[in-house]
């Protein structure tokens, strides 16, 4: 942790157990701990599509910010998060997948969103991350590691690049 403010926040954690909401508002959000934010949403059973989509956007953006092997970092991140949240409403789903949640909670993060963002960010055409171009082999690995349907992915590519 680089700044005195961040160091003070960490010192505040060395105390009584805090409610999840406080952990989210006072620590995970200010420190940019996006995976921790997702974990807090999951543990607290908080589901609101907009904040969760924002967390996913931040997770993707943060992996593109690092120098080095962006494809490997992204694959590891997505595979780890799939292992933890793959069968929950907190991981992006294919439009054909179903998970066991009450009918009123069927709002799911569309997997298309994540794939489209990866295509956009990984194309190198966004201007911000010129070095983060993802090779075609990344998408083949992603499909196999996340157990995605090849047909759904081809349909997404077809609709994206018409």
TrEMBL record:
Gene3D superfamilies: Nucleoporin, helical C-terminal domain. Keywords: Nucleus, Transport. Its main location: nucleus. Residues 7-93 form the Nucleoporin Nup133/Nup155-like C-terminal domain. It is found in: Nucleus. GO terms for biological process: protein import into nucleus; protein localization to nuclear inner membrane; RNA export from nucleus; transcription-dependent tethering of RNA polymerase II gene DNA at nuclear periphery. GO terms for molecular function: structural constituent of nuclear pore. One of its GO terms (cellular component) is nuclear pore inner ring. Pfam families: Nucleoporin_C (PF03177). This is HECT domain-containing protein. It comes from Heligmosomoides polygyrus (Parasitic roundworm). The lineage of its organism: Eukaryota, Metazoa, Ecdysozoa, Nematoda, Chromadorea.
């Amino acid at each position: 942790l680089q700044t005195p403010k961040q160091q003070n926040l960490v010192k505040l954690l060395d105390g009584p157990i805090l409610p999840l909401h406080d952990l989210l508002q006072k620590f995970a959000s200010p420190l940019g701990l996006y995976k921790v934010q997702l974990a807090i949403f999951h543990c607290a059973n908080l589901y609101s599509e907009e904040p969760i989509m924002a967390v996913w956007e931040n997770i993707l953006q943060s992996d593109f910010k690092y120098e080095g092997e962006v494809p490997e970092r992204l694959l590891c991140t997505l595979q780890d998060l799939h292992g933890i949240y793959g069968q929950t409403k907190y991981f992006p789903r294919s439009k054909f997948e179903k998970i066991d949640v009450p009918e009123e909670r069927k709002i799911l993060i569309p997997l298309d969103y994540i794939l489209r963002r990866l295509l956009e960010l990984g194309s190198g055409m966004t201007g911000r991350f010129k070095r983060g171009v993802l090779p075609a082999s990344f998408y083949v690995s992603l499909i196999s590691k996340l157990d995605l349907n090849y047909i759904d992915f081809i349909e997404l590519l077809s609709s994206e690049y018409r």
